[in-house]
Amino acid sequence: MSPNDSRRPVRARRGARAERVARRYLRAIGMTVSDQNVRVGYLEIDIVARDGASMVVVEVRCRGPGAWLRSLDTLDRVKRSRLRRAAAILWSRKWRRLPGIERVRFDVVAVDLDGDQAPQVEHIRAAF
Q1: Strands 54-63 and 103-112, bridge-based pairing
Q2: Which residues, at least 6 apart from 17, have a Cβ–Cβ distance to it below 8 Å?
Q3: 21-25: long-range contacts at Cβ-Cβ below 8 A with a sequence spacing of 24 or more?
Q4: What pLDDT sits at residue 111?
Q5: Which of 2, 17, 38, 112 has its CA 20 to 30 A from that of 58?
Q6: Number of domains into which the chain is organized
Q7: In the prediction, which pLDDT does 54 show?
Q8: What CATH code is carried by the domain that includes residue 66?
Q9: What is the pLDDT of residue 72?
Q10: Among residues 68, 74, 30, which one has the least CA distance to residue 52?
Q11: What pLDDT does residue 4 have?
C-alpha cells in the first residue's frame, strides 16, 4: 500500500484490491495479463489479457460487505456496450495486427472481499 492509499476513498481502495486479486487469479490459470486500466478516450478496460488466440477484455466487479446486489448483477447493458466499443477500437488499432490473435473475448471476474477472509473469485468466461 502506498502512502497515498489511506487518503483514497474506501471504494477506490477496494476496487484496486479486487483488480490485484483478479490479475493474480488470471495469471494462476495461465492467462497473460498484458495491461490494466486501459483508457480508450473516456472508456476504460480494467484488465487486458491474452488467452491463446484471444485478447480478453476483463471487467472486474467487486461489492463490499452488506451489498444488496451480487457483483455480477451490477454489470448493466450500458457498461457492456462501453466495453464492446473500447474493444472494437483497440481491435482496429492494435490487436488485429498481433501475431496469433484471432478474436476478442469478454470475461468478468467478480471478487468478494468479505472482511478478513481470503478473497473469493468467480470467473465467467465469454460473459457477453
Answers
A1: parallel
A2: 62, 111, 113, 119
A3: 21/111, 21/113, 21/119, 21/121, 22/46, 22/47, 22/58, 22/60, 22/109, 22/111, 22/121, 23/47, 25/109, 25/121, 25/123
A4: 92
A5: 2
A6: 1
A7: 98
A8: 3.40.1350.10
A9: 77
A10: 30
A11: 55
Q: The C-alpha cell of 103 is what?
A: 478474436
Which cell numbers hold the place of 26?
488470471
Assigned C-alpha cell, 112: 468478494
Walking along the chain (128 residues) 10 residues at a time, the average pLDDT comes out as 61 90 98 97 96 98 75 87 97 96 97 82 95
Amino acid at 42: Y
Distance (Å, whole) CA 108 – CA 128 = 9
Beta bridge partners, 32, equal 50
Q: Walk across the sheet containing 32-40 and list its strands.
A: 32-40, 43-51, 54-63, 103-112, 120-124
Domain that holds residue 28: 3-124
